[in-house]
Amino acid sequence: xxxxxxxNALVHLYEIRDALAxxxxxxxxxxxxxxxxxxxxxxxxxxxxxxxxxQGRHRGKHPTGRRAATESELDEARQLAxxxxxxxxxxx
Length: 92
Description:
This protein has helices spanning 3-7, 9-24, 27-34, 38-50, 71-89. The protein has 92 residues and is mostly helical.
């Protein structure tokens, strides 16, 4: 994967969550359809959208104090998104 792809890894994983919510009409419907707990849904949101991570969506909100995501955080986000993609694939 290119450096740009790695730098935006969490942005792309958030886009999966966002696409599922759009596909099903809203977050709750997506979670219900794919059996995703609110805890897991929120966790991906925190990793991709809230934490002051270099790879996250809102790096600009954290001009100082940003840090690189740990391998563990990236792996957790990837695993969550992968499970949701697979759950969605089983419905089509």
